[in-house]
Amino acid sequence: DVENLSDALFSGDEENGGSEERKTEINGNWIPATSITEAKINAKAKRRLRKNSSRDSGRGDSVSENGETQKTGVVVPTSPKGKLLDRRSRSGKGRGLPKKGGAGGKGVWGTPGQVYDVEEVDIKDPNYDDDQENCVYETVVLPLDERAFEKTLTPIIQEYFEHGDTNEVSEMLKDLNLGEMKYSVPVLAVSLALEGKASHREMTSKLISDLCGTVVSKTDVEKSFDKLLKDLPELVLDSPRAPQV
């Protein structure tokens, strides 16, 4: 009878063409075999994901319940720290853009192309000073010392030997604060001319003549030649014909 019953069951499945699913009883409930297979596959996939998540725990990654990998280094907006870093509107309105186009914060330059008007002085300001309206600001140029004088004027005179324009030299010397070193201008010019050509010495004579009365005074020229005569023994070491020249 049992054999006939089993044959009848299988014959019934064959007659129905396999339309009915095979069911299995679990905990008193009949569950289709296909559902069990899917449950096993899902459980196996979850175990595999848990195993991978434990391996990658030191890398800063985590696996969600849906199997999606998430970066643990990213601050979740729902956390207190995430709320501080979140620039979206607290009220839920707006598109998350900066206020006033990025020109409304403290210490910002303003929107591109913005032109600021001249700030007017407030007379009622406690720090207002009446004298500041009448202030005159001038550029102060420090006088040249002996070392800076020679370093600055040597290239100017050497360039003059190239172009021969005394007006250019005069304009350049006026921009400098020569101070008490004015008398050293002819001294340096003659010293450089002694080491050069005869044409350089002729140009130096013309330069001293044009600078006298504009950059240097007659007294400065007299003082400069007195110094040249005193320094003549030292000039002979570099230019043996210095006394005759």
Automatic annotation (TrEMBL):
PROSITE patterns: MI
PANTHER family xref list: PROGRAMMED CELL DEATH 4, PROGRAMMED CELL DEATH PROTEIN 4
Family listed: Belongs to the PDCD4 family.
Pfam family, one: MA3
InterPro entries: ARM-type_fold, Initiation_fac_eIF4g_MI, PDCD4
Annotated Polar residues bias: 63-72
Keywords of this entry: Cytoplasm, Nucleus, Repeat, RNA-binding
Domain of life: Eukaryota
Record flagged with keyword Lipid biosynthesis: no
SMART domains with a match to the protein in the record: MA3 (SM00544)
Basic residues composition-biased segments: 43-52
One cellular component (GO) term of this entry: nucleus
Record GO biological process: negative regulation of DNA-templated transcription
GO terms, molecular function: RNA binding
Gene name, Swiss-Prot/TrEMBL: Pdcd4_1
Protein name in the entry: Programmed cell death protein 4
Domain MI: from-to ranges: 148-245
Protein localization: Cytoplasm; Nucleus
Biased composition (Gly residues): 99-110
SUPFAM superfamilies: ARM repeat
Species for this entry: Alectura lathami
Residue ranges of the region described as Disordered: 1-111
